[in-house]
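Slide 14.
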Amino acid sequence: MADFADCEVESVWDYPRPPAVLPDTRPVRVECGGHVVAETRHAVRVLETSHPPTFYIPPEDVRSDLLFLTEGRTWCEWKGSARYWDVIVGDVVRSRAAWSYANPEPAYSVLRDYFAFYASRVDRCLVGGEEVQAQEGDFYGGWVTKEVRGPFKGAPGTRGW
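Slide 15: predicted structure.
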């Protein structure tokens, strides 16, 4: 797996299908309710055609005491069954703000028990010190940074392309 930490601008339309899984050594940080929920230099980026990257954070770099497994699952044709987590910091409750794969498909086994976060459901996510923008829509969890270009799938009216 190549490290894309020093990458120039990428078009999401050049990303592969099935998705690529690449390590990323830049600092990645997730904040919610005035606390750091996750922070790492060992993230994994998942790159899939038409989507901004999704960052997965190793479990040892996540405040698991702030995550609570919730009901419901979704199925990804590539990664398998995703489970969802509420982020709860004091009185701040962010429903289904994170997800993970307990038993991903073999090609994505590196993601086992790593956590991904919806940037739109926490207070702030950063990659290399840059605050990310959330991918539009309420299903995909990509993080938009200055290094990626769309158009991105996920916004209303984009389901069919």
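Speaker note: The radius of gyration is 15 Å.
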